[in-house]
Design brief:
heterodimer, A: about 300 residues, alpha/beta, Rossmann fold, Alpha-Beta Plaits, 2 domains, 6-stranded mixed β-sheet, 4-stranded antiparallel β-sheet, elongated, B: about 260 residues, mainly alpha, two-stranded antiparallel ribbon, binds adenosine-5'-diphosphate, binds magnesium ion
């Protein structure tokens, strides 16, 4: 495998604010790599440095073996970026948005038309071909932005929060397409603040906060390493019950109305617990990326 | 270099495509405005003017005025396009953000915008020129564009357009919001409109005449008028030089300030 993006000691400052704080990562050819984190974590800032539109403050960043500061044109020619904010061209129709964008890549007109039509089909927008951008729903705009990112048949596809604010149908269509692109061998870089999205789509991901990585790895591996395979949620436990749960030596956390116990053997613990404290109610569920995230960042609101 | 030119042309094409999609409404003002000016100023006001002398020749007011309308059109077209037009694309539509994600760089975008502004100057002032020539032919024989040098007016209008578009782009790079364009329009464009030698010869300004030579529009007007009248003098060369130098400086400054504004 070869790395298509390599960052070493990467830093981005905006005045006094350090938005990206000395991070290192490699993104490999053909994988779906996710940056997961709350708003303001620095995800878009990393993306904007990879796409050569935001200058690196310090450290090194190479994309496709080229330095972002030295060969931005060559790099940008091989990337496809769906930015977080809608910047479709409202002066054009859906189809024209794709064909006019193709021109910036210096694509021949026939090829551009052919690609544009294929992509409209791929993102299920054929019927909106001649619609103006202002008349599209939010979900359609997102789909068009993804289609536009693919117009130059990029080696690396960068999707900055591709599903934020979408309804479930639109969200699932985009998920399906991302999987399809991966199968066709594309490298996909994804940012999201949805834990389930990251868990479902990413081969590898980092969880970040305040411009730093909290953890890096494969989603399933990460979940079983950090929180174990299952979670027991307990409602109505008194102090004594909590004391008992903690005495098992497992990780236990308290939120306003319930306790969480993270483990690999929830069934056994629950059986013993229910015998001793029959008044408490408990359920067992599989652990998720969300548990990892909350475990790492705490359950308190962070603003 | 080749890539920069290519990127610039792609940006130019984007704007041209949008313009020609709605060309009917875009062309109407350029057709009717000179008509209104010629009737109001040339006929209504001009009939009160007697003894006007330009470049040593006595001439009828409407003949003096007509080429001035061409240069006003070049000024307003380029300046409007690269202030309000560019600002909307930059700030509200985020069009520049979308484009710089492709192999086109920010410098190419700004150059393409300025080139398009100059093209608007060329298009509009050429329409004004044609309308005036036709109306002159039919209604106001005094206008009489007889010299073939009028064929050089469109290229000069394009050059003037580059100058006004570059100047406009400097303001676009520094204004905090779109309402702030009131200032350059009020402090720069309106004074030029009135004192740039379009409605009366700047020699009428007396001791203030040298100040009129500071105004970019004055030089565009001198060139366009002299070409329409078939006059040439040393002053024309100086005006051309003024425009070329100011355009070069403003163009580079605009690109620099824009990069400063948009690179984060
Ligand atoms: N252009 C900018 N100027 C100043 N601060 C910025 C700018 N862009 C982002 N930031 C700040 O950098 C931090 C990271 O932002 P961002 O990368 O957009 O986060 P995310 O995409 O993870 O939500 C935030 O605190 C944000 O306010
Ligand atoms: Mg973001």
């Amino acid at each position: 495998m070869s790395s298509v993006v390599v960052a070493r000691g990467l830093v981005k400052r905006f005045g006094n604010l350090t938005a990206v704080d000395h991070i290192d990562f490699n993104i490999e050819q053909g994988e779906v790599f996710g940056f997961l984190g709350p708003n303001g974590a620095g995800k878009s800032t990393i993306i904007r440095m990879i796409q050569c539109v935001s200058p690196v403050t310090s450290g090194s960043l190479k994309v496709l073996n080229m330095d972002v500061q030295k060969q931005p044109r060559e790099i940008k020619a091989r990337l496809g970026v769906a930015p977080q904010d809608d910047n479709l061209d409202p002066d054009f129709s859906v189809l024209q948005n794709l064909t006019s964008y193709a021109r910036y890549f210096n694509m021949p007109k026939d090829l551009a038309n052919q690609r544009a039509n294929e992509l409209l089909e791929f993102m299920q927008l054929e019927e909106k071909r001649n619609t103006m951008i202002d008349d599209l729903s939010g979900g359609m705009k997102r789909r068009l932005i993804v289609a536009r990112a693919l117009i130059n048949d990029p080696d690396i596809i960068i999707l900055d929060e591709p599903t934020t604010g979408l309804d479930p149908q639109a969200r699932h269509l985009i998920w399906e397409r991302i999987r399809q692109l991966k199968q066709e061998g594309s490298t996909v870089i994804l940012t999201t603040h949805y834990m389930d999205e990251a868990e479902q789509l990413c081969d590898r991901l980092v969880i970040m906060e305040h411009g730093r990585f909290l953890i890096e790895g494969k989603p399933r591996q990460m979940i079983s390493d950090i929180v174990g395979d299952c979670v027991m949620e307990i409602v109505g436990a008194d102090d004594e019950a909590e004391e008992y749960l903690r005495s098992t030596g497992k990780q236990v956390e308290r939120s306003a109305d319930r306790l969480y116990l993270y483990s690999n053997e929830c069934r056994n613990i629950e059986r013993d617990f229910q015998e001793l404290y029959p008044k408490s109610q408990s359920i067992i569920r599989s652990s998720t990326m969300e548990d990892v995230f909350l475990r790492l960042t705490g359950r308190r609101l962070r603003e | 270099m080749i890539e920069m030119g290519r990127g610039m042309m792609a940006v130019w094409r984007r704007n041209a495509d949008v313009f020609f999609k709605t060309w009917k409404t875009n062309f109407l003002p350029s057709i009717f405005e000179p008509l209104l000016y010629l009737v109001a100023m040339g006929l209504g006001f001009g009939s009160l003017v007697s003894g006007l002398i330009y470049a040593g020749q006595p001439m009828e007011y409407i003949r003096f005025l007509a080429p001035g309308l061409v240069s006003i059109s070049a000024m307003y077209s380029g300046f409007f396009e690269c202030t309000y037009g560019s600002f909307v694309r930059m700030h509200y539509q985020k069009t520049f953000d979308a484009i710089v994600a492709t192999p086109v760089n920010l410098g190419d975008v700004i150059a393409g915008e300025i080139l398009w502004g100059a093209s608007k100057s060329l298009i509009n002032s050429t329409i004004v020129l044609i309308v005036i020539a036709i109306i002159g032919w039919i209604l106001f024989p005094a206008i009489r564009f007889t010299s073939l040098t009028i064929l050089l007016i469109p290229p000069i209008a394009f050059l003037a357009g580059l100058m006004f578009s570059s100047l406009a782009m400097i303001f676009t790079a520094i204004v905090p919001n779109i309402d702030s364009f009131n200032y350059p329009f009020f402090l720069l464009i309106t004074p030029m409109f009135l004192f740039g030698g379009t409605f009366f010869p700047i020699s009428q300004l007396g001791v203030a005449e040298p100040f009129a030579y500071l105004l970019p529009l004055t030089h565009a007007t001198i060139l366009i008028r002299d070409l329409s009248l078939g006059i040439s003098s040393i002053l024309n060369g100086l005006s051309l030089l003024y425009i070329i130098i100011l355009t070069t400086i403003a163009f580079y400054l605009a690109i620099r300030l824009m990069k400063k504004r948009l690179t984060r």
